[in-house]
Design goal:
Rossmann fold; binds adenosine-5'-diphosphate; about 20% strand; binds alpha-D-glucopyranose; 2 domains; 19 helices; alpha/beta
Length: about 475
């Protein structure tokens, strides 16, 4: 049995802004299911929600401050959660990273450095719990200082750093290094310094014993200038300690046969009921309730990563076709306004909901005929996997985890029953539109379309294989 300390800034269902939470909520459960002792450590944000009981665990002193640690569990699992409780840093309403206007909280460096420092104390068995992990598994820049600080400790546990997104690096002015009491041994160009800035992510990339990212294709892409954001050289240098392990999905939460957010359940054997969800979705978005009109869905952060500019550019052309399009998301104000303007212009074809809504996300996966995910880059992506499980073949751009999890529908793959979606290469509105037209053609042949749906639903996206790969990695360390 391995003891694993899992460090993260979000975990579903406690707190979620995106896929990081899905992964950090479900991978620890999969590891616990394989009989490992796993504890998760996360800030006690005001918005953090749990039905499980929360108890006071202990207090520690860090940088002359008193920090409380509370203990709870991930709902419906044996995974213990340690909450870093420091109200001056975490007790604000809303999003963990940004204020209502989308601006980063001004003290983010201090907030996440504190998470890292508490994780280091826990990792070194200095919080009075008689528990020392074998491995500390860190996720994204918010946890990057953990491997850096642990590299200075005697007999520290091994560290794994998982990159969920290279575009977010945790860069702060160099003066922040003093503010955070970064030891001088870490402050140089081969350490935490990056172009005269303090880089949290470099803490993970330089000092972790092993680096993973969330798909094999993204592991290669980030070693190139296009996807590496200036860190491709470092990643290439470390490439014998760098690998891609594809994310799994929570097969219970995302199961059309028992989804708590759906009133009409269905499965591959009873696919007809999917139509009832389509009708509900059309109704919900105020579109004509008509089973014969192909309905496309999109859920996501409205940022450039997700190819929202391609969608905006395509929508006027899409509106000329016999289809409907629904979108749920929030993000860049400019994208929100452009999408709203298009929905106002073509109310019979395009309907959007701006905001975050878990239940509606499930209904879109269930009710849409096809899911759009034209990402410019995508470390893994979860919605394309949810879509396939829901018999909603996705249209994806061939990048990162999208390339690794969706099989394009071509004559050969249709014949050998592996086709599970539509894949296109170029990040251009023209290529996206062509993929949508190809989808419409496949959709117009019910026999072929249903076969693609069946292929997609039969795929195994469970965590089991990937959790085993993480365990093999922990063992090798
Ligand atoms: P990323 O982490 O880059 O945002 P992923 O595809 O990995 O992308 O995961 C996104 C997760 O967040 C999915 O579970 C998706 O359903 C969810 N999500 C994104 N935006 C919304 C929204 N507006 N409402 C509900 N769920 C959302
Ligand atoms: C990031 C990536 C996304 C990935 C998720 C979970 O948010 O953008 O592609 O699925 O992390 O690993």
């Amino acid at each position: 049995m391995k003891k694993i300390l899992f460090v993260t800034s979000e975990a579903h269902p406690l707190i979620k802004t995106g896929g990081l939470a899905d992964v950090c909520g479900s991978l620890p459960k999969a590891l616990a299911d394989l009989s490992h002792d796993i504890k998760l450590i996360i800030p006690n944000y005001q918005a953090l929600k749990t039905d499980a009981s929360v108890r006071y665990l202990c207090s520690i002193r860090i940088d002359n401050r008193n920090i409380n640690i509370l203990e709870t569990r991930l709902p419906d699992s044996p995974v213990v959660v340690w909450l870093v409780d420091y109200p001056a840093y975490y007790n604000y309403p809303g999003n963990p990273y940004v204020d209502e206007l989308g601006e980063p909280w001004p003290n983010n460096a201090e907030r996440f450095a504190l998470l890292c420092k508490v994780a280091v104390e826990a990792a070194m068995n200095r919080i009075g719990q008689d528990w020392q992990p074998d491995v500390v598994h860190c996720n994204d820049w918010q946890t990057g200082l953990v491997p850096a600080f642990l590299s200075l400790e005697y007999a520290a546990p091994k560290t794994v750093f998982t990159i969920h997104n290279m575009a977010y690096q945790g860069l702060f002015p160099a003066s922040t290094a003093n503010l955070l009491n970064i030891p001088s041994q870490l402050w140089h160009l081969d350490g935490l310094e990056f172009h005269d800035m303090l880089s949290f992510i470099k803490g993970g990339l330089v000092y972790a014993n092993y680096i993973t990212t969330v798909s094999p294709t993204y592991a290669l892409e980030i070693q190139t200038a296009e996807y590496g954001y200036g860190l491709e050289g470092l990643l290439e240098h470390r490439n014998t300690s760098l690998g891609g392990i594809i994310n799994g999905i929570d097969m219970e939460q995302w199961d059309p046969a028992s989804d708590v957010y759906l009133s009409e359940h269905y499965s591959a054997a009873k696919l007809n009921n999917k139509q009832l969800n389509k009708a509900r979705l059309q109704e919900r978005f105020g579109l004509a309730v008509d089973a014969s009109i192909p309905l496309f869905g999109l859920i996501g952060r409205l940022v450039e990563q997700k190819g929202i500019d391609l969608i905006v550019a395509c929508l006027p052309e899409m509106a000329k076709l016999n289809l409907q399009f629904v979108l749920l998301g929030s993000g860049d104000k400019a994208f929100e306004q452009q999408l709203q303007a298009l929905a106002d212009l073509y109310p019979e074809k395009i309907a959007i909901t701006l905001g975050y809504n878990e239940g509606l996300a499930h209904l879109i996966e269930a009710g849409a005929d096809s899911f759009l995910m034209p990402s410019r880059f995508e470390p893994c992506g979860l919605n394309q996997m949810y879509s396939q499980r829901y018999g909603t073949p996705p249209i994806v751009r061939s990048t990162g985890g999208l390339a690794d999890t969706v099989t394009d529908s071509m004559p050969e793959t249709i014949a050998d029953k592996t086709a599970s979606g539509i894949v296109f290469a170029e990040a251009s509105p023209g290529a996206l539109l062509e993929a949508i037209k190809r989808c419409l053609l496949l959709y117009s042949d019910p026999e072929i379309w249903q076969q693609i749906q069946q292929n997609a639903m039969a795929k195994d996206f469970s965590w089991l294989q990937s959790a085993k790969q993480y365990l093999a990695l922990y063992d090798n360390l």
